[in-house]
Known about the structure:
By secondary structure, the chain is mostly beta strands. It folds into three domains: 2-8 and 17-25 and 651-732, Immunoglobulin-like (Sandwich), CATH 2.60.40.3080; 65-431 and 438-447, 3 Solenoid (Pectate Lyase C-like); 551-644, Immunoglobulins (Immunoglobulin-like, Sandwich). It has two helices and 62 strands.
Amino acid sequence: MKTIQFSCRRSVHAIFLLLVFLCCFSFTTQATTYYVSATGNDVTGNGTAGNPWKTLFKATSTVTNAGDIIHVNAGTYLETSMLSLAVGVNLEGADSSTTIIKSTVSADYTPLMNVSSAVGTNGNQSISNLKFDGQLTNFLAIFVGGRGGVSIHDCSFKNFKDRGIIFSGKGDYTDGAPAVYASNNKFYNNRVLNCARYIHPNGYFGMGCLNIGGQNGIEIYNNTIIQNQRASGDNGWPIKYANEGHNKGIKIHDNTLIKNKFLGNYNGDNDWDFAVELWYSEGGCELYNNTIEGGVDLAYNFQTTYPWSYWVHHNTISQPTLNDKFQGGIYTEREVQGMIIEYNTFNNVADMVSLNIEDFPPQPSFNGLNYIVIRKNLATNLGRAIGNGNNGSAVNISTHTTATFNLDSLLIDNNTFVAAPGNAPFEGIYLNFGATAGVTTNVFIRNNIVQGFQDAWLRVGNSNSTINGFNVKNNDVYNNANGNNPILSNGTPTGYTYTGNTNNNPMFVGGNNYNLQVSSPNVDAGTNIGLAYSGSAPDKGFAEVGTILPVQLINFGVTENRGNNLLQWTTAVESNSDYFSIERSSDGKNFTSIGTVKAAGFSSTDINYSFTDAAPLTGVNYYRLAQVDKDNSKNFSNTVAISNKSDKSLNIAIAKLSRSNNNMEVTVVSAQNQKTNISLFDANGKLFLNETVQLQKGLNNISKNTRALSSGIYYIRLSAADETVVKNVLSKE
Length: 733
């Protein structure tokens, strides 16, 4: 089968990914859209566009068929009962600023909207383009309990008293792992303001604007979540666990998360400084590309069958100014296995990473820390605005446990740590392995730049642990106290190596740019630890001088597939990659972009990509990839070529859509008598028409009534036995 595209080049990729999806399914029934309007009537209305209902309660109580849509027109709605959304029913508003949902429901643990089923249910539904206003009287906006496959997107939430949104795999509020994890939920493109409470002085416990528990593969992205609107001591967290956590394979990325400035003397004193608090990772959890004001607290992190428990990378965790209270960066509480913290930027915090090891509540298999990687991070202006040294550190291990504490494999490599002048912490790296017996092995501190700390750049505190294998190599430690020497409180550990360390001015570029100048003594002065580098050896610090390609491309090829050209490529390593632009040429010299594919961003494993050129040129088609990173740097792949011939038998010559009478008129040129399926859908895949028609050889004028159309671009698809044609068309009055 060959597929022909008559469309803008910039949209070809998105359209055909959608087309592939649609072609995989046969549509035997059509979804129905029901309408709610502020001027509607629940008694005489029937839910049609011309005779809508007045309340969402009526709509959600009536519409229960999977695939159906409840559309809420612009307006303000005051609901008097809890709303329950049936499995598979989609809920959409006209716009997240003009479609406003309020409620008089105020009972504790009662949501404005309940989206719950038996544990393990696939909801296969979405909630979008609505504004939920809790008026500080509603306890909770949306409770998604037990269901997977639920997407909440392009919504606005504000002023809920206790919590904003809960995704609970258990289907209730209780602690513990679910019998079946909720899979593939999504929360994206939302704005959440002032929806989380902190209970004090009786509870010392905060709620979340967004709460997640018992989730497998939930994706949370492109949201703005802010909790700083209440008085000090009353604000909860932007993101918090539900059901005690128990999440796996989750991705939290590209969000803006803001917590109120911390004003307590210690965490728990009238407040906590957490913007994110998640417990019991069961592996494969990832936080990346977020901008965060507030701490990130991760407790009880287990690797299980995944490569890591948490991979925290490419985030910016900072405060507008240095706090005189203890404002932290990343915390880990209790046991940690397999955590990677890399490529993050920290500014104006007291601790960059604080590994606070506790055994409360007691755990049956407390093992301490196992394989912790902290590398390629930049932390600047570390400290507190009090100037007395009790300000934190870049990396701090502090143990408060009566159990035997073990640490195996701690890697602190290629970071840049700069203390706040005049407000510097005592130590740069403080490793206090605890007062109880245990074994510490395989500690590596390499290629770091550590500058300006009051007591010492490195301190190993009092410990009864046995320390074997302590490697300190090729660090540049500058302008620190104790003559830039470490302090080893218990004497020299067994297997201690201290080599290649220098006390040079690192020669940063300056002006808050902590990259190295080309003439810096730290260029090519590190030791090889297995990371990519340019030059004769790795540089010290978080960033290499010179260019490292964002993508290592293994292969790139093109094949013909029923008239389409299928491009496929594989990357081995990606660092800071943003997207691939697919470029085509008829002569191999002048290239034009015909689509884009989003890149993974950061990966050390093979990733396969593909793109279909559904409208190749007649003759030779030349293709190349422009590999674009997040700094807009661009590198090109090799060029591949393929020859195509033209034997199109279908052509959509004319296409018109009318919103006033919901009508589609199409003129089709067919090279033969043949049956074809004709369908109409929008950019989100919503189907408006799906029928079979008989084409005659030559011109065919087709007129069809459709479901209600709105303003925008639609896509007409013709599918014959060996050919598919798609054309975009703008709906008109």
